[in-house]
Write a structure and sequence with these properties.
single chain; alpha/beta; Rossmann fold; N-(1-d-carboxylethyl)-l-norvaline Dehydrogenase, domain 2; Single alpha-helices involved in coiled-coils or other helix-helix interfaces; seven-stranded mixed beta sheet; two-stranded antiparallel sheet; 20 helices; binds nicotinamide 8-bromo-adenine dinucleotide phosphate; gluconate utilization; oxidoreductase; pentose shunt
């Protein structure tokens, strides 16, 4: 029986855009006792939602924006789930026109945070509230409980909070949603979440590559290894699904599915945005950036084909003389270390963004709401929350005493794995660059001193001295005397 609400009832929340994400989110709201107004540009999708799922709760379908807005309780709250970019702007304009002062427009798509900052200003100028909310967890999360990262004014959170809590994932009785900070904070944090996701997937891929081509294990055997890993420190959604994918046979040929999938990774842009934003903020998010590059390289089909035709010398490829079980354990530890670096860098980027834009984002909130509903959900996030509970101003996540202790046990295997991969000629861009990042942080002296000397030589860019304050320059083309600027 369709429980489509009578037009006299008003909806607590509305959803605009009923493709996969929007319709699943609307069903989630309805299943959790909310009356939901639904609208899609093409009415077919609205009708399909009602005919297929109308019995899951109370829906008010509309075929015009005006009817949709009229079906909402005040202050009106409508979540936009349409294609990011121009479509989102078009819908925001329609809703702003049709709504009144104090109503709340929420963009639940994957918007670039700078667009969210701009949109909030435009919408606020017309007296409406605008909330950019990152929603993680894909289709499944939207239906059964996502992790939600809303930005926007604190005032909107007071109205929106309970309704978002009603549909979010829950871990230990805590909903995976909280107010992240003003304007673009929610979308920024969601963007970095996705960047971390890219790195997490890449390090899992590198571990697989080493087990497969370093010690010649078959996908089904590696699936078992990942299942075991999922029972320990690496317990996470991504490790769990990796085991599923590796165990899967191609229904057509019976071959391991991973062997029939073209090895060119796609991307929709949030990882790239995270890397660009890291560069703009001057934060070394090497693990995330290398992961984006690794996807780009995998898709450089023509270049790879040319390089594979014996064009590029491999150098001497060493035999790996190791105990297989010990190597598997080394790879697990290298994966854990590289993952830890990626998270540490991601949290650095969030801290830098928060300072740059004045958001006051609390890292403990993120470690809490990412524990469920989202793609990077992992047991490890409990440890991250504890780390920030103990010291909210940690200079870096890896400097937390617990993680420093973990690194004691990870560092040697991590070095051995990077050496082995290099000798085997196997690419490990994130394992290796994360290790260089780690060693750079530890290094007493960096070659940056030499770079400053070069910059002063060719561009009179000046330098600082280790032994006294001030700014200095050498008269490189003259008598090479020292000048204090
Ligand atoms: P899509 O991103 O595929 O967008 C399709 C929806 O946008 C349809 O409802 C379509 O209406 C509507 N639309 C377009 Br296109 N142009 C429009 C316009 N000018 N005016 C009004 N509506 C317009 O949908 P999705 O995959 O459900 O994703 C929705 C949002 O959620 C996106 O921002 C996406 O980045 C984000 N997201 C997606 C996932 C995921 O796993 N798919 C995960 C997390 C976040 P029509 O039916 O009339 O064409």
């Amino acid at each position: 029986m369709t429980q489509t609400a009578e037009k006299t009832d008003l909806a607590q929340i509305g959803v605009v855009g009923l493709a996969v994400m929007g319709s699943n989110l609307a069903r989630n709201f309805a299943r959790n006792g909310n009356t939901v107004a639904v609208y899609n540009r093409s009415p077919e999708k609205t009708r399909a939602l009602i005919s297929e799922h109308g019995d899951e709760g109370a829906f008010i379908p509309s075929e015009t924006v005006e009817d949709f807005v009229a079906s909402l309780e005040r202050p009106r709250k409508a979540i936009i789930m349409v294609q990011a970019g121009a479509a989102t702007d078009a819908v925001i304009n329609q809703l702003t026109e049709a709504m009144d002062e104090g109503d709340i427009i929420i963009d639940g798509g994957n918007a670039l945070f700078t667009d969210t900052i701009r949109r909030e200003k435009e919408v606020a100028a017309k007296g409406r509230h605008f909330v950019g909310a990152g929603i993680s967890g894909g289709e499944e999360g939207a239906l059964n409980g996502p992790s939600i990262m809303p930005g926007g004014p604190a005032e909107s959170w007071e109205t929106l909070g309970p309704i978002l809590e009603s549909i979010a994932a829950e871990v230990d009785g805590t909903p995976c949603v909280t107010h992240i900070g003003p304007d673009g904070a929610g979308h920024f944090v969601k963007m970095v979440h996705n960047g971390i996701e890219y790195a997490d997937m890449q390090v899992i891929g590198e571990a697989y590559q080493l087990l497969r081509y370093g010690v010649g294990m078959e996908p089904a055997e590696i699936a078992e290894v990942f299942r075991e890993w999922n029972a320990g420190d690496l317990d996470s959604y991504l490790i769990e699904i990796t085991a599923e994918v590796l165990a899967q046979k191609d229904p057509e040929t019976g071959a391991p599915l991973v062997d029939v999938i073209v090895d060119a990774a796609g991307q929709k842009g949030t990882g790239r945005w995270t890397a660009i934003s890291g560069l703009e903020l001057g934060v070394p998010i090497t693990g995330i950036a290398e992961s984006v590059f690794a996807r780009a390289l995998s898709s450089a089909t023509a270049q790879r084909a040319a390089a594979q035709e014996g064009q590029l010398p491999s150098g001497t490829i060493a035999e790996l003389n190791v105990d297989k079980a010990e190597f598997v354990e080394d790879v697990r530890r290298a994966l854990y270390a590289a993952k830890l670096i990626a998270y540490s860098q991601g949290f650095d980027e969030i801290k830098a963004g928060s300072e740059e834009f004045g958001w006051n984002v609390d890292p403990r909130d993120l470690a809490t709401i990412w524990r469920g509903g989202c793609i990077i959900r992992a047991k490890f996030l409990d440890r991250i929350r504890e780390a920030y509970d103990n010291n909210a101003d940690l200079p870096a996540l890896i400097l937390d005493p617990y993680f420093k202790g973990e690194l004691e046990n990870l560092i040697d295997p991590w070095r051995r794995v990077v050496v082995a991969a290099t000798q085997l000629g196997l690419p490990v861009p994130v394992f290796a660059s994360s290790l260089s990042y780690y060693d750079s942080l530890r290094a007493e002296r960096l070659p940056a001193a030499l770079i400053q000397g070069q910059r002063d030589f060719f561009g009179a860019h000046t330098f600082k001295r280790v032994d006294r304050e001030g700014t200095f320059h050498i008269e490189w083309s003259g008598d090479r005397s020292l000048t204090e600027m």
